[in-house]
Amino acid sequence: MTIINHKPSTMNPQAPTQSPQPTTLVLADDHPIVRHGIRMVLEAESDFRIVGEVEDGLKVIETVERLTPDVLILDIMMPGLSGLKVVRQVRAASPGTRTIMLSMYSTEAYIHEALSSGAAGYVAKSAGADLLVDAVRTVVAGRRYLSPPFSERAIELYVQRVDTGQLDLYDTLTKREVELFKWMAQGYKNAEIASSLGISPRTVEVHRARIMQKLDLSSQRELIRFALTRGILSNEESLPD
């Protein structure tokens, strides 16, 4: 038997040993397989406890308000209500909950928007499992976490380049999404766009949903207003033949 301490103990042998409270977490992602993978990674840590899972953005607010977890792991692209809108409401519903955005997008523009919305951390889905664990521990300690290769300094420099202080999410669209956005803004239906571009209506539908989520829009009217206010549509612009 190994003796750890040769000195007499001054502690009351009857006093119970108090274990630190575990870090409680809620997982919000619309893909069950992704949630399962995240759960396996986090539950491997003895001081982490998953208290809830949500697959719809509209249900996240109620769940967080009811469970008041220490950390919310939130997919930035949630059905029902986008992750960016969710994190803003979570700040009001449960101020003590720290949100980590989980996303496939790794552009400085998108990270800035997430942090501006109130996220405490941002982890790319391509990151290793150990980085997600690090992110949880970092935000619980009251610091901000950014998935490599991004750093606090890089984001600060990026923010300084934003004149208005509010990032235009249009910059986060890919070239293909920009192309489809212009068709959408002029009122073309999915079938019409698909026929003109030689792709399937289902592909257009997927792009449309992704564009709406990226731009934090909820209706065609909002999309048209977005395009007009930013001068994306003009008399000089024309659609391909």
Describe the structure.
By secondary structure, the protein is an alpha/beta fold. The chain folds into 2 domains: 138 residues, 3-Layer(aba) Sandwich (Rossmann fold); 61 residues, Winged helix-like DNA-binding domain superfamily/Winged helix DNA-binding domain (Arc Repressor Mutant, subunit A), CATH 1.10.10.10. Helix content is 45%, strand content 12%. Strands 2-1-3-4-5-6 form a 6-stranded parallel sheet, with helices on both faces. Helix 7 packs across helix 9. The radius of gyration is 23 Å and the shape is elongated. The N terminus and C terminus are likely disordered.
Which segments are poorly predicted (pLDDT under 50) over 5 or more consecutive residues?
Answer: 1-11, 235-241
CATH architecture grouping of the largest domain: 3-Layer(aba) Sandwich
First and last CA, distance:
84 Å
* Helix content percent band: 40-55%
| Strand arrangement across the biggest beta sheet | 2-1-3-4-5-6
- The CATH homologous superfamily of the largest domain is named Response regulator
The number of helical runs is 10
Topology-level CATH name of the largest domain? Rossmann fold
- Total beta strand runs: 6
- Shape estimate: elongated
Rg over alpha carbons: 23 Å
The SSE string, one letter per element, is EHEHEHEHEHEHHHHH
Largest sheet data: 6 strands, parallel
Strand content: 5-15%
CATH level 1 class label of the largest domain:
Alpha Beta
Class from secondary-structure proportions: alpha/beta
Q: What integer is the average pLDDT? A: 82
Number of domains: 2
